[in-house]
C-alpha cells in the first residue's frame, strides 16, 4: 500500500513573488496540499488499495472511488505544479521544445494564449494543461482533481485554476493570474525535460 507524502517545495516560499506570494504558497502547499495527502492516505487505507504507484491509484479510482480519486489525483497534480514553477520572467523555452510548439501551435504566443483561454474556460475548479497526446502537443482543461493521465495524455505543464491558487494575489482576476503564470512562472527547462523523456 502506498503512502503519500507532502513534498518540500523546491524553492523558498518567497521565491515566486511577485507573481505568486509566500502567503499563497503557505496556504496552498502547507494547508491545501497537506489535506489531500492526509485524506488520500486515509481513503487508500479504507478502500484497501494495493496499487504500487500513485498513477495506478489515480487510474484505478477514476470514475469509481471518488474520495480516493479526488485526493490522490490532486496530490499528483500538485507535485507536478510545484516542480514546474520557477521565478522565470519571460523565460526562454529550450529550442527542441520551442520548435515542436511552433509546429503544433504556429507560435509560442498562440500556445500561451490557448493555454490561458483553457484556464479561463474551465468553469469552477480545475486545471489547464499542455499535454502530449500521441506525439502531438495539445492544450486541454480538466475539472476538479482530474489529471490528464486518465485520458492517456502526458502532462507537460499544468496550472491550478482553483480559487485557492490565485485569490490571495489576484482576487477574482483569473486571466491575470494565468498570464503571469505562462509568462513568468514556468520552469521551461523542466517542461522540456518532460517532453524529451516522453518522445
Ligand atoms: Mn491547488
Describe the protein's topology.
Elements (H helix, E strand, L loop, with lengths): L21 H25 L7 H8 L4 H19 L10 H11 L2 H14 L4 E8 L2 E8 L10 E7 L6 H4 L3 H11 L3 H9 L3
Antiparallel strand pairs: 1-2, 1-3
Helix pairs in contact: 1-3, 2-3, 5-7
The structure holds manganese (III) ion.
Please explain how this structure is put together.
- The chain has helices at residues 22-46, 54-61, 66-84, 95-105, 108-121, 167-170, 174-184, 188-196; strands at 126-133, 136-143, 154-160.
- The protein is mostly helical and 199 residues long.
- The longest helix has 25 residues, at 22-46.
- 34% of the residues are buried.
- Manganese (III) ion is lined by residues 28, 32, 78, 160, 162, 164-165.
**Can you say what the CATH homologous superfamily of the largest domain is?**
Iron/manganese superoxide dismutase, C-terminal domain
Largest sheet: 3 strands, antiparallel
**Helical/strand content category:** mainly alpha
**Strands, total number:** 3
Just give the CATH class of the largest domain: Alpha Beta
What are the key terms here?
8 helices; minor pseudopilin epsh fold; globular; 199 residues; single chain; Helix Hairpins; 3-stranded antiparallel sheet; 3 strands
Short recap of the structure:
The protein is mostly helical.
Amino acid at each position: 500500500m502506498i503512502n503519500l507524502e507532502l513534498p518540500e517545495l523546491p524553492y523558498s516560499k518567497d521565491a515566486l513573488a511577485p507573481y505568486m506570494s509566500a502567503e499563497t504558497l503557505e496556504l496552498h502547499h502547507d494547508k491545501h496540499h497537506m489535506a489531500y495527502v492526509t485524506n488520500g492516505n486515509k481513503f487508500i487505507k479504507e478502500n484497501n488499495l494495493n496499487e504500487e504507484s500513485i498513477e495506478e491509484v489515480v487510474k484505478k479510482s477514476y470514475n469509481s472511488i471518488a474520495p480516493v480519486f479526488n485526493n490522490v489525483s490532486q496530490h499528483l497534480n500538485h507535485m507536478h505544479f510545484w516542480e514546474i514553477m520557477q521565478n522565470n520572467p519571460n523565460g526562454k523555452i529550450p529550442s527542441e521544445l520551442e520548435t515542436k510548439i511552433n509546429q503544433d501551435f504556429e507560435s509560442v504566443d498562440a500556445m500561451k494564449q490557448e493555454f490561458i483561454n483553457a484556464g479561463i474556460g474551465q468553469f469552477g475548479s480545475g486545471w489547464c494543461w499542455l499535454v502530449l497526446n500521441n506525439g502531438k502537443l495539445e492544450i486541454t482543461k480538466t475539472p476538479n482533481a482530474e489529471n490528464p493521465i486518465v485520458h492517456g495524455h502526458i502532462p507537460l505543464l499544468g496550472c491550478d485554476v482553483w480559487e485557492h491558487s490565485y485569490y490571495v494575489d489576484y482576487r477574482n482576476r483569473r486571466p491575470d493570474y494565468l498570464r503571469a503564470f505562462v509568462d513568468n512562472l514556468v520552469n521551461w527547462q523542466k517542461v522540456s525535460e518532460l517532453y524529451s523523456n516522453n518522445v
